[in-house]
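Mods, move this if it's the wrong board.
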Amino acid sequence: MNLMMLLEMAAEGLDDRVAVGSLDGGLTYRQLYDRAHGAANRYRAAGVESAVVCDESSPALPIALFGSAWAGIPYVPLNYRLPADDLLALAERAGSAVAIADEPNLERLGRLPGVSSVSAEAFSADPAAGTDGHASPGDWNMDPDDLAVLLFTSGTTGSPKSAVLRHKHLVSYILGSVEFMGAGEDEATLVSVPPYHIAGVASMLSSIYAGRRIVQLPRFDPDVWIDTVEREGVTHAMVVPTMLTRIVDALDARGGAPMLGIRALSYGGGKMPRPVIERALDLFPITNFVNAYGLTETSSTIALLGPDDHRVAQYSDDPIEQQRLASVGRPLPGVEVQVRDDDGTVLGPGDVGEIFVRGEQVAGEYREKGSLLDADGWFPTRDGGFVDDDGYLFIQGRNDDVIIRGGENMSPGEIEDVAISHPGVRDAAAIGVPCREWGEKVVLLIVADGDAPAPDELDDLIRERLRSSRVPSHVEMVDELPYNETGKLLRRVLREQFAYLGDDPTD
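Not the wrong board. Structure tokens:
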């Protein structure tokens, strides 16, 4: 297995079809294959250990990705938004490298020992510049255990870890979830997620294998997103919840006219507020919506809530079917999911515990820690959740975010779900702050949708749906909640910001 298999098959079957960019002037599949060949020549001539990319989305990304697979070195996309010192520290951990970089980081990266830097524009135009040719067509290594991609975690609780994805993991994911050449010639996917996120890598690989043209949006802006969809004839897209929220707001600001060109819209990476997805279903009336749940360590998606479930929930009067909009659906074929308690006992439907996953696409490995798979191949996701009677998976947040009040573990997700069900709540976050008597107490942060609900209304709603211990000690109204660029709620920021609501144990 090697990622180059995917591009080779597509280039042979599609040849002159545009793979990346606009129909007028974009890279064809054959041109992408040839430029990956040139990139492999550059990497081999330089004798480097990795291919580092530090830039916004551009044609340089797929060239660098497939070129690295050809040359037998890992592809290492870095967050170009990081402060200079943090960025350089990650680049040093990648070892000797050819670094494809934006202008602000071009010189910085080039000063590192063993690193030669080239601008993304120059690399895209001539990825083999300065070489005499070292790679031959088809001479890539087919060892499935070769390292394909290194992705650094966000590092919100310490130094970022580098997740290891091998060729067998990524190829298994693509072969198990994408139909080869299944896309029509008129289909195009808009990639607006960050290139250093697993969704950015997976979208490139899946689009190439399906034969779907890739349209890249370097920086997300909801109005630019809408205009790009219409101008480029985009039929497929993937967004994180915060992006979809802004797209919905932008469409409403334009008069609320429906968008009819998008055939499929997937979302994931964070909790989707139910009012947002319900409004999106109205604004995209013929679009197939998919909620995709996955992790970097699982090579992207492991569970899907499909289009039928979305439309059934939209029009159903059945509370169980309506509630499934809050789930991430069922596991993909070839993926197994278990929910376990703290002792490792597998739990039944409805019982909340830690989610474990197993399958060919699951890597579960870090350079710093090695493999975290247990003896039977199960990976602990550190996400809490449960499976209902029909096999739908519900995510209730990271285990690190659990609120412990009086020795009782509380999932912030269950409190947030109830709060968001109130028509006056657009978004919500529950956090724990220190409390002398109980250890922690619940603080609920609310983004109002129109007229803000009274705190007593939310207290009564939570007490009715859950139990009195979940009722927040404080309800605070905020203009917005902090999310990172991949849609993750930054609870750490909220805990710091609202720590003053807790009891100081030194008093």
